């Protein structure tokens, strides 16, 4: 599934700029399983649950100052929907992966990561931290 995102994002105030920065940081850190992954599907999607919690906190904090722009909401909502779909499929699967389930999990995570990369690019390009995004993508 291809998720629609706005073509641009212009933070309408300092709070939204900070919210975009926080979202970029959270998404950079929590969109993929860590090295401590236990090999189960539920372990692989655990960081997505943490990302959803972070998205809720970011939006709530942003709303304390003013209502987020439609553009910002249109950036966050597809992330929440896509991550939620993956979580619904795998959150309670604690069994070790076989090749068929590994392929299905990989495809679900690939779809989310493709959206995450588009959001990261959009946020960095319009938030003013493009050079940091380029450095994040550079091989170690």
Q: What is the percentage of strand-forming residues?
A: under 5%
- The structure class reads mainly alpha
Number of strand segments: 0
End-to-end gap: 31 Å
Radius of gyration: 16 Å
Helix content: over 70%
Order of helices and strands: HHHHH
What's the number of domains?
1
Work out the oligomeric state of the chains in this entry: single chain
Low-confidence stretches: none
Name the shape in a single word.
globular
Overall pLDDT, averaged? Answer: 89
- How many DSSP H or I helices? 5
Sheet of most strands: none
Output the keywords:
mainly alpha; 5 helices
Describe this structure in words.
The structure is a single chain. With 140 residues, this protein is mainly α. The protein has one domain (14-30, 40-134). The protein is built from five helices and no strands. α1 packs antiparallel against α4, α2 packs antiparallel against α3 (70-90) and α3 packs antiparallel against α4 (99-127). It is globular, with a radius of gyration of 16 Å. The relative contact order is 0.20. The mean pLDDT is 89.
